[in-house]
Amino acid sequence: MSATSAGRPERAAVLCGTGGWLPRRKAGNDELADRLDTDDAWIRTRTGIRSRHFAAPEEATSDLAVEAGRRALANAGAETADAVVVATTTPDRTCPATAPLVAARLGLTGAAAFDVGAVCTGFVYALATGAGLITSGVASRVLVIGADVYSRIVDPEDRQNAVVFGDGAGAVVLRGGHASEPGAIGPFDLGSDGAHEDMITVAAGGSRLPADPARTSRAERHFVMRGKEVYRHAVARMAGSARTVLDHAGLGVEDVDRFVPHQANLRILRTVATDLGLPFDRCATHVETAGNTGAASIPLALADSHASRVLRPGDRVLLTAFGGGLTWGSCLLTWPSLPPTPEPSHHGEEPNP
After folding, report:
1. Which pTM was predicted?
2. What is the pLDDT of residues 103-125, one digit of tens each?
3. Cα–Cα distance measured from residue 188 to residue 167, given in angstroms and rounded to the nearest whole number
4. Distance between CA 24 and CA 178 in Å, rounded?
5. The Beta-ketoacyl-[acyl-carrier-protein] synthase III N-terminal domain covers which part of the protein (predicted)?
6. Does residue 342 fall inside a structural domain?
7. If 20 and its partner were Cys, which of 180, 315, 328, 344 is the partner (CB 3.0–4.6 Å)?
């Protein structure tokens, strides 16, 4: 990283806290197999997933985001933030955004708050946005949350997708600092290709096609993904974006200590790692017990890896994601020294606000 003209280190956004939250209800493969005419072996072979968590009927995306955000702020030793950015595909409502409600429930009324929609790449986009708010001087501390309740948009009778997706939220806190510090975020690579926007979609519910049952089919009102095509694009885009970030940083794959990709499914994770030439034991995974949690998957994997001490201070961490849009993105950071945290699935006696 370069120095400023005044000789001071370059300003950067620094990760200083992490937290995750999974709903209490845990659903194993056998529960879904009975309904979907499949079995545990088929699900594990295709996805590597053993279980996932589902939000209760009264829980919304904001509820999960608040819990993850509270944990991240506590881990950072922070009581305030100047901005809250929530990456989600499943906002509480079409209007307004979910982030202002999350901010208010966390006692951050008055902070800038808005949502980012980039599907499963959403957290990387939100992280870049939070970093930009800090480096531009707009904010000194930003809470970045990825939260999704896919159980609301996935058809429970869809054998291909119902076994893959789960609900959850993960969060990080960024503060202003310098590029030479552990926890400094960047560089980034972000991209999109809207020519393939129908590859991952919920067709109804927007301004183009309102979710009127009289005018739309069941499939149009639920999440649809063309799996084989998505697999090819995901592998190519995640690996390509990861290489771009490493090139920008002047680093090679051998310099990566921990690889944290979007937790799409275990097959994609293994293929991307192989394509990059990374040993799979450097890959942080959370998909086995949480499923694909969309924008929450990377921050949940970070929180889980920190809680289990898989991530160690000084580790050079590579993040990469791919999602609907199509969108993709990657970034680098060096893991800082953070206080211990509970695992995202550990609920303890913490009350809901």
Report:
1. 0.95
2. 999 999 999 999 999 999 999 99
3. 26
4. 39
5. 114-194
6. no
7. 344
348 belongs to a structural domain: no
| Digit-coded pLDDT (tens) for 175-217 | 999 999 999 999 999 999 999 999 999 999 999 999 999 999 9
Average pLDDT for the chain: 94
User: Is 260 in contact with 123 (CB distance < 8 Å)?
Assistant: no
**The pLDDT of residue 34 is above 80:** yes
CA distance 24 to 338: 26
CB of 89 closer than 8 Å to CB of 266: no
What CATH code is carried by the domain that includes residue 121? 3.40.47.10
Residue 27 lies in a domain: yes
Contact status, residue 262 vs residue 242, Cβ threshold 8 Å: no
Task: Compute the residue count for the chain.
Answer: 353
> What's phi and psi for 197, nearest 5 deg?
-65, -20
**Residue 345 confidence (pLDDT):** 81
Catalytic residues: 120, 262, 292
Q: How confident is the model at residue 318 (pLDDT cuts 50, 70, 90)?
A: very high
Strands across the sheet with 316-323, in order? 185-192, 327-334, 316-323, 258-261
Strands 141-149 and 83-87: parallel
161 and 214 inside one domain: no
Question: Closest Cα to residue 98, out of 69, 76, 124, 139?
Answer: 69
Cα separation, 299 vs 148, whole angstroms: 12
What one-character-per-residue DSSP string does 287-349 give? HHHH-B-GGGHHHHHHHHHHHTT-S-TT-EEEEEEEETTTEEEEEEEE---------TT--TT
Establish if 94 belongs to a structural domain: yes
User: What is the span of the domain harbouring residue 232?
Assistant: 185-284+297-334
When divided into structural domains, the chain yields a total of 2
* Region label for 328, one of left (φ > 0), alpha (ψ between -120 and 50) or beta (otherwise): beta
Same-domain status, 20 and 147: yes
Q: How many of the other CB atoms lie within 10 Å of CB of 205? A: 16
Look-up of token digits 């211990």: 340
Query: How far, in Å, CA of 217 to CA of 347, rounded?
Result: 38
Of 98, 77, 121, which Cα lies nearest the Cα of 295? 121
